What does this fold into?
Amino acid sequence: MPDFISYHEGTLPELLLAGRSELFRGQQCPSMGITIDSCDRSFTYALDSDGFQLLPGTDTAAFTVELSENDWQGMVADLESVPGILYGDRLLSHHGEVKHFMRWDPLLRALYTGRPLFDDQRFQLTDKQGMTLDPETRFSMESETATMREFLDASGYLLVGDVFSNDEIESFRAASQAIAGDARKDNQQSWWGKSESGEAVLCRVLDSGKHPAFKDLYDDPRIAALEKLLPEGMLHPSADSKDGVTVVFKNPHVKEGLSDLPWHRDCGMGGHAAMCPCYVVSLYLYDATPESGCLQFLPGSHHYGCGFLDTSAENIAGVITVPARAGDITVHIGDVMHAAPPPTAATGPFRQSVLLSFHPDFENHRGERHYNDVLLGAEDGQVGSLRDTVDRSSDHA
It folds into this structure.
């Protein structure tokens, strides 16, 4: 693992001279001072018109952060992330606005790994031959596997229509309601939020595969056919395990919690270098529309570093809203930027989805069960929003 001083006095300057500084040309962000708990030296990361500047000390930094040595090394290895550190309450100390640390998340990935930054104004979605792809393409189970795989690899997501029948969907709906009725706030098997009136609302159930209707989904021939779109060697969890099969319940007017997911990547709590590429298969139990809270994707963003954008889709070029009908499926790569905005309709039904996951054989570098477990822990099942987490971290200054 890298040594903090030798990395900043040897390795990083060499990388910057070799061209990595060019990744930051045109980028803007307040300068960040960084130190770790096992070292009395510090450095400042700054951006200017020529790219990146590495400076000794933190006297000129707009804000500073102190990390543990393990967390800093994890950032260098693309195993840690700023949101994961904040949700885990592992930011040792800071001076200045924590929101600036969030803004540095994709910049740190670029600095440490060479991953280029996404430019939504210039990106074009094309196939391997350079031909433009329609980001709103709807596939079917009869579509050619090679064509679907190329689209998934290029865009980061895929919509497949009419996969499950109406009768099957009715059965799944009944099962999801039974699961919702059995969900408890205190067993760390579900996510909860709060409505405008302060009422607890169920956002997702993590162990839904225990229900008979969902326990064999991974063995369904249609899921097996879609699995062929993924790289060889992908594994899936046991259906009846935690996170084996998840049911998502979209709710209107949620004011607290993670029902309305901001722009994020599924490896955003850490582990990218170990667990990616990971894939999520979403089976829709009701029509997913902007009115019911359907997903949005930023095509091609999985090939780049991209921030946790706290902005509306209207201000991001290239965002695609993906409506889906009941019985449809989407497949997306975990590292593609996507969001789940709130429903706009006053009445439902709102989006409900059954999630399956596929990933390489990997071990959590923290020795824990799942990177997303950092979101759990509250006795009432509440999962805080990213904005609330940043505010909480700011209060700990």
